[in-house]
Amino acid sequence: MSTVTQLSYEEAVAAFEPVIGLETHVELGTNTKMFCGCPTAFGAEPNTQVCPVCLGLPGALPVANRAAIEATIRIGLALNCSIAPWGRFARKNYFYPDMPKNFQISQYDEPLCVDGYLDVEIDGETVRIGIERVHLEEDTGKTLHVGGATGRIHGATESLVDYNRAGIPLVEIVTKPVPGTGARAPEIARAYVTELRDVIRTLDVSDVRMEQGSMRCDVNTSLNRPGAEWGTRTETKNVNSLRSVERAVRSEIIRQAGVLTDGGKIIQETRHFHEETGDTRSGRSKETATDYRYFPEPDLVPLAPAAEWIAELKAALPELPRVRRARLQSEWGFTDLDMQSVVNAGAVELISATVEAGATAASARKWWLGELARRANETETELDALGVTPAAVAELQGLVDAGKINDKLARVVLEGVIAGEGTPAEVVAARGLEVVSDEGALTKAVDDAIAANPDVAAKVRDGKVAAAGALVGAVMKATGGKADAKTVRELIIARLS
Ligand SMILES: [Zn+2]
């Protein structure tokens, strides 16, 4: 079956209204697993971090990890949720070889945190994303299909299972459906995941690295005609980068709009996002909750976090990213537009660190969003991976402010820093880039320039001061750009008046 109609994105969102929803899994950075004392360190030899509990051996009993519960409550509080005073874990029953117990301990109708929200900013406008629930569960192991060319099960000669990951605490954060986003649905989905990642990073409960799988995102998308009921949604699984979140929503909107335009029906199913092609492909038809035969976990006591404990955790929350950005904007004296460009460039922390290293906010912004952003763009590198530290940028600006180098030389110095030649001061010394401000040396160059350009000099003598520019240029050329232009100009005017 293939779709005949292929709409553009603009046509799709003109004819249909998208409703999105996001389910995000975050692996907590606790020292031990959710229900046993096994370590959680990444990258150990397969099946070396296991015990009877996380291997699901008969008779083994789970004990809940207090640190994981605390981390989940803090995430819930940061997302403005209510914390349930009482609740139970539940068994989610299904068979999968990487899940040794044949059920996952999760939370079902009694999640730990409910009914919150996260505000995200898009082009200076605040969009509030409702949070339906935040609950705690355990991760599964990992299956490795070997012997085939692709690493997939097809063509593999054997499958190996590593249970080191089985039982690592996993928090699932589920949004309420988000209607009314229109054409901005993909952008808003990305902005939400970005903000959520920053919040969780600020709480220091996970390293939230999407590329390593410690943060994984499922994206729900449905379309409806304006004014009609919401459509059937699909769930795109394991979207593993911020950029892919945006692309997955966009491509699913285009696909569904094509199907619906042809009079087809959207099937409730799981789909997989393909990084190479940027589209989604059909996976399995989506299970409903009844397929999992949930029931309260009989081996664990109910969770009943004390109100005082929750109040303590709430009082101890760190300054959250949105509040921090507002404070920094006011401290830095940036306009909304200035700040927006800093946020979009992902440069908030870099500028903050540069200011801490002694630069003014304006000069820090000038370097990171100007010359450095240009170089990052050219080499398709992230700003923080350029090899230039905030301290180096502050030092560079310090050299400019002290008159040791000018802006043009500063860019050459930056080149040296990026090439690994040392700190800005070291590059200036090694490459001999310091400006010539010694008046004796400059006077000689000025005299030479006047002698070589008698007609220009005559104009300046007649009061046409603007003509001095040509002489300044000649001196700069003679000194290889290392003269201080302001001093040169003063010397020329003094000589010719
Ligand atoms: Zn264990």
Polypeptide structure, described:
It is a single chain. This protein is an alpha+beta fold. The chain is elongated, with a radius of gyration of 30 Å. Helix 8 crosses helix 11 and helix 12 crosses helix 13. It contains 17 helices and 14 strands. It starts with 8 loop residues before the first helix and ends with a helix. The mean pLDDT is 92. The structure holds zinc ion.
How is the topology of this model organized?
Layout: H1 9-15, E1 17-27, H2 66-78, E2 82-83, E3 90-93, E4 103-106, E5 113-122, E6 125-138, E7 142-146, E8 158-162, E9 169-175, H3 185-203, E10 215-224, E11 234-239, H4 242-261, E12 269-274, E13 279-285, E14 295-296, H5 307-315, H6 321-332, H7 336-344, H8 348-356, H9 361-369, H10 371-378, H11 390-401, H12 407-418, H13 424-431, H14 439-452, H15 454-461, H16 468-478, H17 485-496
Parallel strand pairs: 11-12
Antiparallel strand pairs: 1-9, 1-10, 2-5, 3-4, 3-14, 5-6, 6-9, 7-8, 10-11, 12-13
Helix pairs in contact: 1-4, 3-4, 8-9, 8-11, 9-10, 9-11, 11-12, 12-13, 14-16, 14-17, 16-17
The structure holds zinc ion (ZN).
Zinc ion (ZN) binds next to loops.
GO biological process, one term: glutaminyl-tRNAGln biosynthesis via transamidation
Domain Asn/Gln amidotransferase: 349-496
Keywords: ATP-binding, Ligase, Nucleotide-binding, Protein biosynthesis
Describe, in short, the structure shown.
The protein is α+β, with helices and mostly antiparallel strands. The chain is built from 17 helices and 14 strands.
Q: Radius of gyration in whole Å, from Cα?
A: 30 Å
Describe the global form. Answer: elongated
The strand order across the widest sheet is: 2-5-6-9-1-10-11-12-13
Helix content: 25-40%
Whole-number mean pLDDT:
92
The number of strands is: 14
Hetero ligands: zinc ion
Beta-strand percent range: 15-25%
* N-end to C-end Cα span: 86 Å
Oligomeric state of the chains present here: single chain
Class based on secondary structure composition and strand pairing: alpha+beta
**Count of alpha and pi helical runs:** 17
Q: Uncertain runs with pLDDT below 50, 5 residues or more?
A: none
Could you give a short account of the major beta sheet? 9 strands, mixed
